[in-house]
Amino acid sequence: MTVWIAIAVTAVGCYAIKLLGLSVPAGLLERPLVRRLAPLVPVAMLAALTAIQTFGSGQTLVVDARAAGLAAAAVALLLRAPFLVVVGAAVVVTAAVRALTG
Amino acid sequence: MRDALGVGVAVGLSGFAFGVTSAGSGLSLAQTCALSLLVFTGASQFALVGALGAGGNPAAAVAGALFLGVRNAFYGLRLSHLLRLPGPVRPFAAHWIIDETSAVAMAQPDRDSARLGFTVTGATLFVLWNLTTFLGALGAAALGDPSAWGLDAAGPAAFLALLGSMLRGRRETMVAVLAAVLALACLPLLPAGVPVLVAALAAPIVLALTRRPEAHR
What we know:
The structure holds 2 protein chains of 2 kinds. By secondary structure, chain A is mainly alpha-helical. Chain A is built from 6 helices and 2 strands. In chain B, about 80% of the residues lie in helices and about 0% in strands. The relative contact order of chain B is 0.16. Chain B contains 11 helices and no strands. Chain B is globular. Classes of the chains: A mainly alpha, B mainly alpha. The interface between A and B is large, with 72 and 94 residues.
């Protein structure tokens, strides 16, 4: 039951957050500061998520097979590979490094 | 258009990983599918099942998931300006505001292709994410550990690819580097979800630092 409550609160909360951003009055967006800041915030968050999901393990930092996979993805990205190839490279290299290092 | 489909398919793969992870954390099939249908923001879902599976306090688990969801408000802020959606559509579109739909929409050159990109990515992702979550949760027992297949690298690689499309200048690169450093520095010190919010401060910090030279001109 507790799990269902947690799911319900998360679902309602996450939806409210999404709707809030979309419903903020347009006047606020016309402010120069907000206009310059808004495109930079997702850049910061995506960079942070990439870093955390690559090197984070719970609350500790580790360098494991994921780092090799992400390095492969970065190379694919620099070579202008399509999205699927970038993600595929990360998955394959991560699995291969894990298989080789046991 | 090809961007949108590519993103959709790739994230479908992480949906599979989510299903497997959630089932592995002890959530039922119905609970796992409810999360993907109703929460529909991957990082928050992973955070929630991770915390619940580790036996964490449910309130803290929910707080972590919500913290991670806060970035969607910033995407919404940007998207409302970009897409200019009519009022009645907004409550439906809101459910689809996530990293990937926002990134695809923002990468488009004009409003029409931004709307198309948002809709195609949202629809593709919603269908695939829920379908693969279901399959992942079902197949969890057969597959064993998702990390053995490298599926835990799919999420961050997708984020990296989305980030790559946004790095248009020096200012964006500075924000990305500073944000990654801040997030990693905070990870051992702060509860799950908070480091990403701290890292968001990289945006105003870099903006403040790079504005000064322009002011002198």
